[in-house]
Amino acid sequence: MINVNALRERHNVRLDEPLEIWRRFRSSGRLANASEMPDELADMARSVHHLFGWTDDDARRAKPTGHTGTAASAGGPAGLYMLAEKAGQSAVDFGEASRLARELAVGDDDIMFLLVFAAKSKFGDGQTSGAMMQLAAMIMQDDATAGKLYRTLAALGSDRSYQMMVYESADKRLSGGANDALRAEVWNEVALLYLAAGRFDEARNKANAARALAVKSGAGTIASMALGNLAFILMQERKFGEALRAFEQLAKDQEAAADSANLEITRQNIAICRRYLRGS
């Protein structure tokens, strides 16, 4: 049985130097633009910024790793990385791995480092990267970033029941208002999963809710996506009159946004609805 104290005492020589450099640049508030960093680390820094929106300011606000050791990766980071490796290899139960990961109390910025190290370092691998992302989504203190991680996990999945479960986890993390635009995007995806399952009422309700939340949060692109999803759902139900009205409103929104590529698709759908309504 893995002991949390033993995990805190661990260090990993492959993690020590890059994590020490990462922390040094982060503490100076210049990690996101650290052109003088080693190339691999600079690439990792750009990844957490561009993929997950994690910035120097986010790191500065985050609680640091609760324990320290003589090496940079001691005190929790190396132990967390080992848990991801073992979970990825199915050598430890994932529930037990997540429990231990929470007890380690690794700081959010160190978690983000471990996440991109597993994904982009020459020492990382796909299994560890996937497990690390799952653990990170579960244990990070920052709800908005955790929601982004869950959204990414769902997008990478192919099983609809798994995707629904992951989106539900994202929704819980975002329920406190950490990122309403992202929550609307999650609801959009859930609406499509309901549609794929033939659950039309739930699909319509979720698409409507997604649009309302996106409008409220000023996320115009997501609001248009939700309206397009709603119109498509109505088409699948053969409610062509309602679908036509939704598509016509979508066309107005796309014209206002100068979204010519999607506007052409919407016009084609408008034509389809009108043909069905004419009975031809």
Helix/strand layout:
Blueprint: H1 4-9, H2 13-27, H3 39-52, H4 56-61, H5 77-88, H6 94-104, H7 108-120, H8 126-139, H9 143-156, H10 160-174, H11 180-196, H12 200-216, H13 220-236, H14 240-256, H15 260-278
Word description of this protein:
With 280 residues, the chain is mainly α. It has helices at 4-9, 13-27, 39-52, 56-61, 77-88, 94-104, 108-120, 126-139, 143-156, 160-174, 180-196, 200-216, 220-236, 240-256, 260-278. The relative contact order is 0.07. It folds into two domains: 1-141, no CATH class; 177-280, Serine Threonine Protein Phosphatase 5, Tetratricopeptide repeat, CATH 1.25.40.10. The chain is elongated, with a radius of gyration of 22 Å. The chain contains 15 helices and no strands.
Question: Would you kindly provide a brief summary of this structure?
Answer:
The protein has 280 residues and is an all-alpha fold. The chain has helices at 4-9, 13-27, 39-52, 56-61, 77-88, 94-104, 108-120, 126-139, 143-156, 160-174, 180-196, 200-216, 220-236, 240-256, 260-278.
Number of domains: 2
Radius of gyration based on Cα positions: 22 Å
Low-confidence stretches: none
Round the mean pLDDT to the nearest integer and report it: 92
- Our count of helices gives 15
Shape from CA axes?
elongated
Which sheet architecture does the biggest sheet show? none
Structural class: mainly alpha
Strand content: under 5%
Order of helices and strands: HHHHHHHHHHHHHHH
- Distance from first to last alpha carbon: 69 Å
Helix content: over 70%
| Number of E-type strands | 0
